[in-house]
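Q: Given only this backbone (285 positions), what sequence would you predict?
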């Protein structure tokens, strides 16, 4: 059926040829920015009929906090004639280095649906450009977080574009972090797991473990030790959630190793989660 359609439709053959010829250089060069031309015959950009009217211009949105890998995501879209025509995603660390330059666009990802980071970006770009609708983008298996944040940022930008508001915005995200402190003289390290919904701390768990044998103070077979540390760890984490504070409740010179390691974990969490960097200038035209 497809063969007959191609035979009887020179325009369709031309469209496929243009798409292929456009994608190959992108894949070879690692470039992950693309311009959409809906009508390859005339070169015109046709507005999508099923979407709200979008005001032309460049729009930017970024995540408010660094994720567990240390990156904040920033998305830039260019809209012409009411259509998304260019897309650029950057994942930026606190040193303002792009993830693409750190991990490399040609780094191979084993056992994933896409070959590398550059291919992931390109796939997300193409799905948004062709559908013009973030709701029609499928999260990529093995790269769910980046996919979902791309979608969420796209939705936020299109909401701005319907109002013609070109002011860059930052969005809240759901983030989970795992922090491990240095080990004490007995080999125990603090293990802190925290989940945030935007700025709100919604879950916090603390334990002390020996990583080599997975020994845990919360799971100690000694009933007295088990009860003592579960009570302490539950109290300090529940207090942090109630107060919405990542500051240690103990003095800085606290001698008890459990309390000192908990304070160290909170400090590491604050540093990792710090509010994302300022918008990186990206001009699409």
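A: Predicted residues:
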């Amino acid at each position: 059926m497809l063969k007959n359609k191609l035979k009887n439709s020179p325009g369709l053959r031309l469209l496929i040829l243009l798409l292929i010829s456009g994608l190959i250089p992108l894949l070879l060069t690692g470039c992950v920015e693309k311009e959409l031309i809906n009508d390859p015959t005339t070169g015109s950009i046709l507005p999508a009929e099923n979407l709200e009217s979008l005001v032309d211009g460049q729009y930017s949105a970024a995540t408010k906090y660094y994720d567990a890998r240390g990156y904040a995501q920033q998305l830039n879209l260019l809209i012409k004639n009411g259509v998304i025509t260019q897309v650029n995603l950057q994942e930026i660390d606190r040193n303002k280095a792009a993830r693409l330059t750190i991990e490399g666009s040609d780094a191979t990802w084993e056992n994933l649906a896409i070959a590398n980071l550059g291919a992931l970006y390109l796939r997300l770009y193409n799905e948004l450009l062709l559908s013009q609708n973030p709701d029609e983008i499928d999260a990529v298996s093995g790269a769910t977080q980046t996919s979902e944040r791309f979608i969420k940022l796209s939705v936020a930008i299109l909401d701005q574009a319907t109002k013609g508001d070109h002011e860059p915005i930052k969005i809240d995200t759901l983030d989970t972090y795992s922090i491990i402190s240095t080990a004490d003289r007995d080999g125990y390290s603090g293990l802190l797991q925290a989940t945030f919904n935007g700025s709100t701390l919604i879950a916090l768990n603390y334990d002390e473990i020996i990583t080599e044998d997975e020994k845990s103070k919360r799971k100690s077979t000694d009933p007295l030790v088990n009860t003592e540390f579960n009570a302490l760890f539950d109290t300090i984490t529940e207090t942090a959630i109630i107060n919405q504070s990542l500051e240690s409740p103990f003095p800085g010179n606290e001698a008890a190793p459990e309390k000192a390691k908990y304070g160290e974990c909170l400090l590491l969490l604050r540093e990792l989660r710090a509010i994302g960097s300022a918008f990186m200038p990206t001009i699409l035209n």
